[in-house]
Amino acid sequence: MAAPQQSALPRPVVLEQSSAPTPSAIPRPSKKPEQVKKDSCSPSAAEITSRLEKVKLDAHEYWTSKPSPHEPCKFHLRIIDVSSQGARDTLRSIDYGAIIGDYAALVLRLLYDRNQDQPGTRSVTLVARAMPGVAFTKGIDIDNDHKEIHLSTDYIASTGPELRMLEVHGVLVHELVHCYQWDAQGTAPVGLTEGIADWVRLNCGLSPPHWKRRADGDWDVGYEGTGYFLDYLEERFGRGTVRRINQRMKCEKYEERPFWNELFGCSVLTLWEDYRKSLCKDGSEKEEMDVKRSRGATSKPQVDAKREQILKEDAKDEKENDGSRKSGELNNQQQSLEADGAIRPTPTSKDEEGNERWSWVPVPSPPQSSEP
207 and 145 in contact (C-beta within 8 Å)? Predict the structure, then answer.
C-alpha cells in the first residue's frame, strides 16, 4: 500500500507510553488467534472478506439513504515506524480511509436512534504503534471530544495471518464504541462499557471463533462474557434494549439497584440467573448459532434478505414515531413519566416459550388519607 500523503496526516504529538487508561483497554487474549485449533471453525479469508463487505454495505446504504442529523466526525491515521513488520501487517489488513466512516456509522446505528443525543466526538485518530497489549482509547488532554485509538502493531504482527484481518477490524469496531458510548459520567462499571463494545462487535459479525457464551462468573466480567449477556437481553426484551441501557448512562451516575430495576423491573442478578438458565436449556443451539455468526457463513441471497430485513425494521421504527412532531418526544415523555413514578415496566404476558413480555403500565396512585 502506498504511504499516505503528508498533508493528510495530523500534526505529530508526543505519545505518553504510560498514560493508557485501563477502562477502555483490550487485554491480550490468553490464546493467540493462531493458537486456536483447526476444528474451531476458523473462517476462511474469503468468508472474512465477504463478511466485511456485507458490514460495510449495510452501514453505507443505511447512512447515505437517511443522513444523520449529527455533525460528521473527522478521521485521521498516524503510523509510527511505518517500515516495521507490524505496521505493514496492519496496513495490509485494513483500508482505514475506505472503511472507518462506515464502521462509525454502524456503531452509532446500533447504539442510538437517529434523534437521540450522542457524545460530541469531533475526531477519531487511529495511532498504530509498537506497544504492549492490544488497544486502548482515550481523549486527548486538551479536548476530550477528540479521541485517539492506539493499536498495537506488535499484537497485529503476532496474530496468525488467517485471522489477522478479522482481528484488526473487530478490535477497531470495539474501540470505536468507546469513542461514542455514554459512561454514566465515568461511574459505569468497566465490565458494562466493555461488554457493550463487544456486543456491537458481535452484531457487526466480527466476533472471533474462540468467543463462547458463558455464565460462569459475574455479569460484569466484561468483553464477550457481558456482550453475550447483553445480546440475551436484546433478544428477550426486544430490539433497542442495549440502546436504552446506553442512553440511561447519559446523564445519571450509575447505581446498580435503581439502574436495572427501573429499566427491567428486576435486579441485574436476577437477569443474569435467567441468562445462566437459558444457556443450560439450549446451550448447544446457541453455540451452533454463534459459530455461524463468527464465520459469517451466509450465502448472497441470505445476505440480501438480511439487509432488506434491517432496512424494513428501521423504516417501521421511523413510521411508529411519526405521531410526534419530533421523533424524540415520545421517548422523552416516557422517560419523564418513569422518573416521576407514573409508569413502570411490568410483565403482562408470556410468549409460547414461556418468556415474559413487558409493557409500560401506570402506577396506581396511593390512597389519600382523610383527616379526622
Answer: no
